[in-house]
Design brief:
The N terminus is likely disordered. The chain has a three-stranded mixed beta sheet with strand order 2-1-3. It is globular, with a radius of gyration of 22 Å. Helices cover 75% and strands 3% of the residues. It has 14 helices and three strands. 37% of the residues are buried. By secondary structure, it is mostly helical. One of its GO terms (cellular component) is plasma membrane.
Length: 317
């Protein structure tokens, strides 16, 4: 009975931010705010450009549009609370709201991974079997692939907050992090957390192994097809269509792998370094993705430039 009575003793958490760098929080908030604003602006431009330009109504750009929407949701679930901590000293976070933030952050990350897999498949079909591109990647198929990614993420992450709610939290309430991360919250429980840890690791590993395996398979097939081409110009053109996607893959998975490994086996890595990388993992890809696709994709680049030039001419008149 005593255990039940104190099961919900802690009603809120205290988010430290970046341990050891509290004196610099006001300065750290500046790049965070800049990344947040650029992510919202850049992804909005991508979505609007694809929507108003009929020539961009193709599967690859529909996937890019989904990625932009997900990036805006991901950065919006993270950056505002960080700025509250860094600039307003709003360290207190309600228990339920913390679990909600944790759920949405991890859900959006898994959706992002699924979309990168879908985009790799798009490149595989476009390069390896181009004559069947329009028959395989129809609009209903693209929609189903997007929905599959959302459904997978929704149900894979759902047990995490549910398993945490069954844990008792008595005295530990300080989270040494800038946002509510799954393992950081689990570590504060006053009970055995083996099930929570095992499930969290199994989800992370299964997503990374499956998604990276599918992406690697797609690119192996792509490289095999490209090297069978006789023309050097054709090879360069084919690989050039994958450049933006490869940059996005590196920007997403590199910090993700570093954050995952340091959180579980990197005991000697300072917590401040881990938290900075974990935060960059959520803020940088949503900011960089629209820039990468805007620069690397000629159709998007030309359309954005024409939009800004036409607006400049209209304002000049």
């Amino acid at each position: 009975m005593a255990d039940n009575a104190t099961h919900s003793y802690i009603s809120s958490f205290f988010l430290v931010g970046i341990p050891g760098l509290q004196a610099f929080h006001c300065w750290i908030g500046i790049p965070v705010c800049l990344l947040f604003a650029l992510a919202l602006l850049g992804n909005s431009v991508i979505i609007i450009t694809i929507k108003i330009e009929p020539s961009l109504h193709l599967p690859v750009y529909f996937f890019l549009c989904m990625l932009a929407v997900n990036d805006m949701a991901l950065v919006s679930s993270t950056a505002p609370k960080m700025l509250g901590i860094f600039w307003l000293d709003a360290h207190k976070f309600d228990f339920s709201i913390c679990l909600a933030q944790m759920y949405f952050i991890h859900t959006f990350c898994i959706i992002e991974s699924a979309l990168l897999v879908a985009m790799a498949f798009d490149r595989y079909v476009a390069i390896c079997i181009p004559l069947r591109y329009t028959t395989i990647l129809t609009t209903p198929m693209v929609t189903k692939m997007g929905l599959a990614g959302v459904i997978r993420a929704t149900f894979m992450v759902l047990p995490c907050p549910l398993l945490i709610k069954r844990l008792p939290y008595y005295t530990k309430y300080v989270i040494n992090h800038a946002y509510c991360e799954h393992m950081a919250v689990v570590k504060l429980a006053s009970a055995n957390t083996l099930i929570n840890r095992a499930y969290g690791i199994s989800v992370a590993l299964s997503v990374m192994v499956l998604d990276l395996g599918l992406i690697a398979t797609s690119y192996i097939k792509i490289l095999q097809a490209v090297f069978r081409l006789s023309s050097q110009n054709a090879r360069s053109k084919a690989l050039g269509t994958c450049a933006a996607h490869v940059c996005t893959l590196l920007g997403f998975y590199t910090p993700a792998l570093f954050s995952f490994l340091t959180h579980r086996i990197g005991k000697k890595v300072p917590s401040s370094i881990h938290i900075i990388f974990a935060s960059l993992y959520l803020l940088v890809p949503p900011t960089v993705n629209p820039l990468v696709y805007g620069v690397k994709t000629k159709q998007i680049r030309d359309r954005v430039v024409s939009l800004f030039l036409s607006n400049k001419i209209i304002s000049g008149n």
